[in-house]
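Please go through the sequence line and C-alpha cell line underneath and see whether the fold suits the sequence. See right below:
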Amino acid sequence: MAVKMVIEPIFEADFKNCSFGFRPKLSAKDALDRVRKACNRKGNWVVDVDIQGYFDNINQEKLMMLIRNAD
C-alpha cells in the first residue's frame, strides 16, 4: 500500500483521460458511459486492450530508474 501511495500519483499524471483500467475513482461503468457518448459521434474509435502478464514483464531496472528520477 505504501508503494501504491507513492507511485500512483506519478503515473496518474501521465494517463490520458480516456484510460479507465485499474484507475482510482474510475470504473467499467465510467468506460461504458464514455463509449456510449463516443458512439453517438462520427469518426471516433473505441479500443479495448488487455495485455496478459504486462506487469510480469516490466523491466525492473528501468522502472526503478524512472522512480528515482521522478523527483
Remarks:
- The chain has a mean pLDDT of 84.
- The chain is about 45% helix and 0% strand.
- The chain has one domain: 2-68.
- The longest helix spans residues 28-39.
